[in-house]
């Protein structure tokens, strides 16, 4: 039986991991060994938090690649995990704020008497994420989109991931041309920059309307927004602006 005076510790490493190396992994092992050798601590978890693209360090590769490399490197570990929260933030996040985020997350789990093995659960959850891949059916093209971009859009094959973490939703849309990530909480206004799309700053609000996840975007364009919903095994996305509509249908890809 563990002595009640033993202090549980979670190790957090922030950095670019550009790319991850054996020493990054070794520092976790060294830190755990040192702490536990004192007899005062038990390390229960290690968290890697790669910095986001907004850090803009010279030579920094895209966060999604660094994140995936780190996850592959730690996949066999039963106590070290990689978290995407920092990479999904639209602006650079100070280390103190990152530490505070994980402290509050762990504190909340403890207050809820969460006995789940968070490392194994996080890795299992990644393997069970639902990926949708499909073609885009263009019903009409919103104004402001040039003819060259229209041609590219017609040929793109998109991959979409929708992930929920507590009350936070993360929608990732990836293609060989451009990637786009949006993070939000239902019922809360947030500022959105449609980087790589039409590069506009809008104020967005996402709500549930029946079985549809609907977003209203306020800005210089009128009647702008989108809606996601499921029908059978297909994910539908409708983008609308100034009375024009773009409809995309994603089919679940069982191979991913």
What's a quick, concise take on this entry?
By secondary structure, the chain is an alpha+beta fold. It contains five helices and 14 strands. It has helices at residues 22-37, 63-74, 95-111, 118-127, 147-155; strands at 7-15, 41-50, 80-82, 131-134, 136-137, 158-165, 168-174, 180-185, 190-193, 201-209, 212-218, 224-231, 234-241, 244-252.
What would the average pLDDT be, to the nearest integer? 80
Shape: elongated
Number of strands: 14
* Count of discrete structural domains: 2
Largest sheet: 11 strands, antiparallel
The CATH class designation of the largest domain is Mainly Beta
Low-confidence stretches: 133-143
Q: Which structural category fits the helices and strands?
A: alpha+beta
Q: Could you state the order of secondary-structure elements as H and E?
A: EHEHEHHEEHEEEEEEEEE
Give the fraction of residues assigned to helices: 25-40%
Strand content: 35-45%
Computed over alpha carbons, the radius of gyration is 21 Å
The named CATH superfamily of the largest domain: Calycin beta-barrel core domain
CATH architectural group of the largest domain:
Beta Barrel
Please name the CATH topology of the largest domain: Lipocalin
End-to-end gap: 42 Å
Number of helical segments? 5
């Amino acid at each position: 039986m563990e002595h009640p005076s033993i202090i549980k510790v979670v190790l957090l490493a922030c950095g670019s991991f550009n790319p991850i190396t054996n020493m990054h992994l070794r520092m976790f092992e060294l830190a755990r060994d040192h702490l536990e050798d004192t007899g005062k601590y038990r390390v229960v978890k290690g968290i890697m938090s790669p910095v986001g693209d907004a850090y803009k360090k010279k030579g920094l590769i895209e966060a999604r690649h660094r994140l995936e490399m780190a996850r592959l490197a730690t996949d066999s570990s039963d106590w070290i995990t990689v978290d995407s929260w920092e990479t999904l933030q639209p602006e650079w996040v100070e280390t103190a704020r990152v530490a505070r985020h994980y402290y509050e997350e762990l504190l909340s789990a403890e207050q809820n008497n969460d006995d789940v093995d968070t490392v194994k659960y996080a890795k299992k959850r990644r393997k069970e994420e639902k990926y949708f891949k499909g073609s885009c059916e263009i019903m009409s093209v919103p104004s402001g989109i040039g003819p060259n971009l229209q041609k590219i859009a017609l040929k793109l094959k998109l991959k979409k991931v929708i992930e929920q973490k507590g009350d936070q939703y993360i929608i990732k849309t990836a293609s060989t041309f451009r990637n786009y990530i949006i993070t939000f909480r239902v019922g809360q206004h947030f500022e959105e920059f449609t980087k790589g799309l039409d590069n506009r700053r809008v104020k967005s609000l996402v709500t549930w309307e029946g079985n549809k996840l609907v977003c209203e975007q306020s800005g210089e364009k009128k009647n702008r927004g989108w809606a996601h919903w499921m029908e059978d095994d297909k994910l539908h996305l409708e983008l609308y602006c100034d009375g024009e509509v773009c409809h995309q249908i994603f089919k679940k890809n069982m191979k991913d």
